[in-house]
# Entry
Amino acid sequence: MLSYVFVLFLIFQLARRAAAGVIIERQSITALTLAQIEAFKPYTLYAAAAYCPPDQTLSWTCGACSGNPTFEPFASGGDGSDTQFWYVGWDPTLSSVVVAHQGTDPTSFLAILTDIDFFLVGLDPTLFPGVPSSVQVHQGFALEQAKTAPDILAAVQTLLEQHSSSSVVLVGHSLGAALALLDTVYLPLYLPSGTRVRTIGYGMPRVGNQAFADYVDTMDSDGLTHINNREDPVPVIPPQSAGFVHPSGEVHIQDSGEWLACPGQDNPSQLCIVGDPNVLQDNILSDIIDHLGPYDDGIIMGCGAFA
# Structure
């Protein structure tokens, strides 16, 4: 009888601890203040502007460009199909070099194929010297990032030297966010020690395996933020069952418009994108719309930027 009571007592204590853990986990999910949300606006506009052709980003005449009027474009490239658009420039307001990658254009067949090619492969040791072989990433993303890596690195190095700066910000939406994340690993391998690299991605798909997520989490940088909008299905693909894992840094925009910081990798809470019961269950059209936005201040991703 005593042992039976003792077992019940242990079960009760374990249940209490488990419940406390759930409460602690929920409490650790914190709401962003209005000021914190508004601080993302320049980066959101930079990600939207990456959808514009190079001639517009070099002249800084795109619709999304008006939100960051002091930006000084330096280099750009891509064709929006075989190679995603990208640009690099200097933001004197942020005192930082900005690198932006275009997201997936649904009308571009080659870009869609890049997304579908989701086998995990090791990083090219020529581009990523010293990165452990256990770090694996989406094959299509790796091939796409390799096309622009040398040109982007050269532009970043030049601007850092010209402005005596040690700050780089990487932005992108959708596929562009995945490319920005790969640049997050790539650029510090070649930049001067002490260079601060900050990455802000929107609607970012999973990019690599557990070793990749752990590597990103332990990098000496200013950190990663990946912002997911409502029931956007893109951040939950490729699936975890295929070996893909998100690094830490998620911010999930709720249906109410509240922005919540979700700690950890692929946080399973219903308040975060992985645990949101409505993801992949809603009308597909509304899900696609959620992928495009709106993000802060009503910004819809694309060259025009605003809804």
Summary: The CA atoms of residues 128 and 189 lie 7 Å apart. DSSP finds nine helices and eleven strands in the chain.
